[in-house]
Amino acid sequence: MSLIEGSAKKTFAHPSKPRGKKAKKKPSAEEEEEAEGALLEESPSKIAEDVLKEKMEKIQKEKQVRRQSFAAIA
Predict the structure, then answer these.
(1) From which domain of life does this come (predicted)?
(2) Distances in Å between the alpha carbon of 20 and those of 12, 15, 17, 26, 71?
(3) pLDDT tens digits, residue range 33-50?
């Protein structure tokens, strides 16, 4: 058989093309409440980030005071 005779050609989706998404099931009321609670609470990494920012600000203030005292002496 040749293509001229009109034979059907099988086509496949290319692997780089996205596939259809599966429908997600709706979360129950309990799962929704837990998800909302998790969003309201700060994550440990966010808390640690805030603590580090506060420490850096404190160090910067100490450096500034030290520079001013050296400038006053000179």
Answers:
(1) Eukaryota
(2) 14, 12, 10, 18, 68
(3) 666 665 556 677 888 899
Domain that residue 69 falls in: 42-73
Q: Residue 15: what residue type?
A: P
Give residue 42's identity as a one-letter amino acid code.
E
Is 64 part of a structural domain of the chain? yes
Amino acid at 72: A
CA distance 52 to 46: 10
Instruction: Return the percentage of the chain with pLDDT > 70, whole number.
Output: 43
- Position 50 in a domain: yes
Q: For the chain, what is the domain count?
A: 1
As a whole number of angstroms, the distance between CA 24 and CA 18 comes to 17
